[in-house]
Design goal:
By secondary structure, this protein is of the alpha+beta class. It has a single domain, classed as Sandwich (Jelly Rolls), CATH 2.60.120. 28% of the residues lie in helices and 28% in strands. The chain contains seven helices and 14 strands. Strands 1-12-7-14-4-3-2 form a seven-stranded antiparallel β-sheet. A three-stranded antiparallel β-sheet has the order 11-8-13, with no helix packed on it. Helix 1 crosses helix 4 and helix 2 packs antiparallel against helix 3. The radius of gyration is 18 Å and the shape is globular. It binds fe (ii) ion. The site of fe (ii) ion has 3 residues, from loops.
Length: 245
């Protein structure tokens, strides 16, 4: 992959980047699998379990549901792109497949990473997420990001009086006056990579949807943040694939 400094600068400034997977058999396989999962037809030894209202997550793990879920990353050199735009050696710590019913989202505006007067929440420095939605006939807004909000943060605000919701403060609310609300609409094969300290929310949709969520961080962070075996297995597996490539 040709390193593109524009991507690095854009990601640093905005906190997110939109890219497209190339049309290939791997993408077809990913889509086929996601479609079946959306229709509640999951492979044996896997199941869909409700995590948040209106959503179901693929269990017990998603990364080994189908080889295409990791192949799509390497066939598109996403591993190189991620390391370039973050200037880190990132590994994969978590893969989730989540179906959502049409309607209001369970996830209002929030940051995954923030600090209050009495605690630090989320992974610091922030994990980087990649989200890909199965394309639908009618493209819809799926995710909103408050552009550049990862660089506009106040630390130490009172959890009791300054926070409207977990991960969303009075200060964050004022950012709507200054920052662009970027609406990520899924089309054929596009995906979003974002810094999880950005304020973001899941949009209300008219159709049911399914998405795959990859969480990247450094080896040290994955080892200290995720203690269950399957995260570490995934990380080691990703590391091997990265070396082979
Ligand atoms: Fe989030």
């Amino acid at each position: 992959m040709q390193a593109n400094n524009n991507d690095m600068v854009e990601f640093f400034k905005n906190g997110f980047l939109i890219k497209e997977f190339k049309e290939c058999n791997t993408l077809k396989k990913v889509n086929e699998n996601l479609k079946n999962i959306l229709n509640n037809q999951v492979k044996s030894n896997f199941l869909l379990e409700e995590k948040y209202a209106n959503t179901k997550d693929l269990r017990p793990t998603a990364y080994n549901y189908d080889t295409s879920f990791l192949d799509i990353i390497f066939n598109n050199d996403v591993h190189l792109l991620l390391d370039h735009i973050t200037q880190k050696n990132l590994l994969l710590g978590h893969v989730q497949v989540r179906t959502s019913k049409a309607g209001h989202s369970y996830m209002p505006w929030h940051r995954d990473v923030y600090s209050t007067d009495n605690r630090d929440a989320g992974m610091m420095p922030p994990a980087i997420k990649l989200i890909y939605y199965l394309p639908t006939q009618n493209y819809e807004n799926k995710l909103e990001i408050l552009q550049s909000s990862h660089r506009l943060v106040l630390n130490g605000l009172s959890e009791k009086s300054d926070f409207l919701l977990p991960g969303f403060s009075n200060f964050d609310k004022q950012l709507f006056n200054f920052c662009n609300r970027y609406e990520f609409k899924n089309n054929n094969s596009n995906y979003i990579i974002f810094d999880t300290s950005c304020a973001h929310s899941v949009s209300e949709t008219k159709e049911d949807s399914v998405r795959i969520i990859y969480s990247f961080a450094t080896e040290h962070q994955i080892k200290s943040h995720f203690n269950s075996e399957h995260h570490l297995n995934l990380m080691e597996h990703y590391k091997c694939l990265k070396i082979k490539k």
